Amino acid sequence: MFTGIVEEIGKVLRIDRKVKSFTIHIQAKRILEDVQLGDSIAVNGVCLTVIEFSRSSFQADVMPETFHATSLRMLSPGSMVNLERAMAANGRFGGHFVSGHVDGTGSLLSKKRVENALYMTFQIPEEFKVFVVEKGSIAIDGTSLTIFEASGGKITISLVPHTQAETVLANKNIGDSVNIEFDMLGKYIYHMLESRKEVKTEITMDKLIENGFIG
Questions:
Q1: What stretches of the chain show up as alpha helix (H) in DSSP?
Q2: In 10 A of CB 67, how many CB atoms?
Q3: Cα 36 off chain centre by
Q4: Do the strands 40-43 and 46-53 form a parallel or antiparallel pair, or are they unpaired?
Q5: What does the buried/exposed string (b/e) look like for 34-53 if buried means 16 or more CB atoms within 10 Å of the residue's CB?
Q6: What φ, ψ does residue 161 adopt, rounded to 5°?
Q7: What is the enclosing helix (H) or strand (E) of 120?
Q8: Where in this chain does the record put each Lumazine-binding domain (predicted)?
Q9: Is 129 in contact with 153 (CB distance < 8 Å)?
């Protein structure tokens, strides 16, 4: 579990590619202070498992499902990535609940500077519009953000100066792909409501007798 508060910007050193998977080597510093084998680290919002590490880098495997479902396949040596360690139980919780299980990818449509803010508009997959709520939470490349505006299949977020400086988002170019994870609470509520629609129990006299309500 993560918070969406990016701790560090890392740099991709090497990618050992196979056909539909790869091992990624990432340069980092802060997140390696207490790292252990098997730890979870979010890389651009994708939860990966540390399989090897040194004082200045770590390695993680990217499986075929992650290869197809996220934008990690588009990384190359030199790419900068958002990094966050798994949430500590004894720390402050400054973002929102982020699982690191990306729902899909979106693309940057526009960016506009308004005084000290940077407005960024993204196209999101049509099937995920139901999870979008203005002023609601969303994680883009692992960064916890608030939806500033939503219209159709587009969302706009506003980056404060700190987020512009401490994450990779401000350096995205028009057309770039990003990983998107929608609010966990919203997804659970939607699933529960949809499940209730599917389970329609018709109350009949026979059912009342069968369940002991009528003798």
A1: 64-69, 161-166, 184-198, 205-210
A2: 16
A3: 23
A4: antiparallel
A5: ebeeebbbbbbbbbbebeeb
A6: -55, -40
A7: strand 117-123
A8: 1-96, 97-193
A9: yes
Nearest of 135, 125, 133, 131 to residue 184 by alpha carbon: 131
pLDDT value, residue 208: 56
Q: What is the DSSP string of 21-73?
A: -EEEEEE-SGGGTT--TT-EEEETTEEEEEEEE-SSEEEEEE-HHHHHHSSGG
The model's pTM is 0.87
What type of residue is 68? H
Which domains are delineated in the chain? 8-85 (2.40.30.20), 104-198 (2.40.30.20)
Task: Over range 77-97, report the average pLDDT.
Answer: 87
Pull the structure tokens for residue 107.
Answer: 């693309």
pLDDT tens digits, residue range 32-81?
Answer: 999 999 999 999 999 999 999 999 999 999 999 999 999 999 999 999 99
Task: Match 């040194």 to its residue by tokens.
Answer: 54
